[in-house]
Amino acid sequence: MNLIKIFLQAAIVDNAILMRFLALCAFIGMSNDVSKSIGMGGAVTFVTVLASAVTWPLFHFVLAPLNLGFLQILVFILVIAALVQLVEFFLKKNVPSLYAAMGIYLPLITTNCAILAVTFDNITKGYDLAESIVYSVGASVGFTLSLVLLAGIRDRMKTANLPAFIKGTPSLFVATSLLAVAFMGFSGLIK
Amino acid sequence: MKATLKESASLGLTLALFAAGACVALAVVYSITAPTIDGLEKKQTEESLAELFPQATSFQLMPETLVSADPAVRFTESYVAVTGPGERVGIAIKAFGPSYGGDASILVGVDAGNGIAGIKILTLKDTPGLGANATSPNYFVDRSSGTTWPMQFKGKSLSDAFEVKNDVVAITASTITSKALTRIVKAAGDAGYARLKAFAEGGK
Amino acid sequence: MKRLWNIFSRGIVVENPLLMLMIGLCSALAVTTSVQNGIGMGAAMTFVIFFAEVVISLFRKLIPNSARIPIFIIVIAAFTTMVDLVMKAYTPDLSKAMGVFIPLIVVNCIIMGRVEAFASKEKPLDAGVDALGMGVGYTWVLVGISAFRELLGNGTLAGIQIMPDAYVPILFFTLPPGGFLVFGLFISLNFWLKKVFPAAADAAKEAA
User: Fold this and answer.
1) A99-123 pLDDT per residue, tens
2) Does residue B12 sit in the same domain as residue B70?
């Protein structure tokens, strides 16, 4: 029950993009095409879950006992960068088809702040390992969801007749704003 | 092959040197800032206690954790406020309970007389501009007297109903936050009142 | 002198990291609900980008090409942690208000982008000036957005009541959707600035 709650909270109520403004670079850069946004979502989900599974034990069994909590930022970001590298090597060698599909997104993931934020949240929210994993899955599902939603809206906006001052990038943010209004409706869903 | 081995060794060494440099620099900064950071929370608690019981001269951490009658509210530490001549004037309880945006914590002061000495909201993660108005110094339930939302509990009797929109003024458009916080205050108030009564009867 | 000025001014409008390059957006939207937050975040970010650019520029000849990304990350992370610790110790309220977004400076693409594209090739003086330009460009947008959102959403500026008592704050602007909307309008404004002052744009293009 508690795990379901954490999942919904991360995916919808505290949606990483629309409610917490995380990963906006990827959000704006990768949402011009629905299939591309699904690919990006998949890659992010994979790395986020893996990163949570590695950083949680690292913090609780290495950094915290040694009183090295102040190295958290440095260690976590290096872990994520290394994981992205590893995943890239592994996919290139063993699953070339998946690499061809996901490869271009991988280098962009290191600087995706949603991943780093999720690994920090796992610690500050005091989650145990299972809760951390569920939280990271939820956050990435929420990320993918809003990415796909915006990609769909952008498809329609291509043919829409917009006022001149809002054409181009500004229109993306106005659309995002409306999406966020819709997601505001979910707050209070979980108490 | 040999050349690449040498190359990667030097690469690794450079990396290690940079990492070591960074760690040393951070350790220095950490050793300077750590005492201040650790002292802050203690200072916040002390200041809040002094605000709730200005007449008290010392606060004793109670050895036991009080038990909440309300299952949704839990308590951590509690303090007994003592004046110079050794008279107990009240109890302050740090209470946690669910609110709109996650757990909120409130320091609730109960005085030996009739009820709540005052409350201090320590953490609240509710929506800025709505529920978060509970902690805003610029949000008033009564603008003419400058009463903020937490201030309305000062001197409130525990025999009151503690009903939002009845004897507790709600925060505009934030009934859930108002109810959640009032519930925490009520639970802590009751527990503190019971403990004070036990003190008075036990004499100790 | 002219050259340095051109490097500096580039970041403010023409190559403004937030409005033109669309990078480093997360913190710009998340913390801009009050002017204090905007200034604090801008200062923290400027500190990190300045020292990261200068340090990397100083050591640029010692950094092997194939290991440069991890080294950049280490340097940026170190300065970010310093800012985080210092703010936690001396400005606890500000640090609490910004929460996870201070540590997240480490993945701010502006810093990584400037370090990679500029500091790793240029002299420390130029790198420092470039960092300050980017920092100022970032900070003015943050302060602008936060002033707009705080004034309409809360009726105050930097915590001081500005609007008359009768004004009912439009909460929308302090909530997430308001952030997105205001940011979209600011991009629109920057496009307009660029159209109205084409001379500045040309000067900066020459410098680049």
Assistant:
1) 777 666 777 787 788 899 899 888 8
2) no
3-class DSSP assignment, residue B30: helix
Residue A48 structure tokens: 């986020």
Residue A132 CA to residue A144 CA, distance in Å, equals 18
Q: What is the pLDDT of residues C51-102, one digit of tens each?
A: 999 999 998 888 888 788 888 989 999 999 999 999 988 888 888 888 788 8
B37: containing domain: 1-41
Give the closest-approach CA distance of C171 to chain B in angstroms: 6
CB atoms within 10 A of CB A170: 23
> Rounded to whole angstroms, what are the CA distances from A55 to A6, A58, A111, A141, B1?
19, 5, 16, 20, 34
Task: Report DSSP state, residue C17.
Answer: T
Residue B46 belongs to some domain of the structure: no
Q: What is the dihedral of CA A161, A163, A169, A173, to 10 degrees?
A: -100
Contact A73 C106 (CB under 8 A): yes
- Tell me which DSSP letter residue B79 carries: E
- Range A11-45 burial, b when 16+ CB lie within 10 A, else e: bbbbbbbbbbbbbbbbbbebbeebebbbbbbbbbb
What's phi and psi for A93, nearest 5 deg?
-80, -45
A74 touches chain B (CB under 8 A): yes
Contact A71 B100 (CB under 8 A): no
Rounded to a whole number, what is the distance in Å from the CA of A13 to chain B's nearest CA? Answer: 10
| DSSP string for residues in B32-64 | HHHHHHHHHHHHHHHHHHHHH-TT-SEEEE-SS
pTM: 0.81
Strands of C35-163, DSSP E? 156-157, 160-161
> Are both B6 and B95 inside the same structural domain?
no
Q: Which chain B residue's Cα is nearest to C95?
A: B37
User: Which ipTM score applies to this complex?
Assistant: 0.84
CA contacts within 13 A on the Cβ side of B55: 12
Indicate if B80 and B179 belong to the same structural domain.
Answer: yes
Pair (B70, B128) in one structural domain: yes
CA distance C129 to C2: 12
Strand intervals (E) in chain C = 156-157, 160-161
Q: Which chains touch C (3 or more CB pairs under 8 A)?
A: A, B
Give the start-to-end residue ranges of the domains of chain C: 10-207
Task: Tell whether B92 is covered by a domain.
Answer: yes
Q: Are residues B25 and B94 in the same domain?
A: no
